[in-house]
Amino acid sequence: MTKEDARELEAELARLQQEHRDLDAAIDALHQSPAPDLLRLQRLKKRKLLLRDRIAFIEDQITPDIIA
């Protein structure tokens, strides 16, 4: 992996982590509303899970494999 590739992955990782935090805040706010939209809540949670998986994948790409 080149340094340019690593920089691009780190930038995407930062963007995805920010989106994940934003979704977390949106989900919390929706939970606290008097009549939460359950369909919207389900969609936000699903998107958050997809982001978590993508974040884990990118972190694995950035972190070099260490053979013990």
From TrEMBL:
It comes from the Bacteria. Keywords: Coiled coil. Residues 6-61 form a coiled coil. Gene3D superfamilies: 6.10.280.50. This is Small protein containing a coiled-coil domain containing protein.
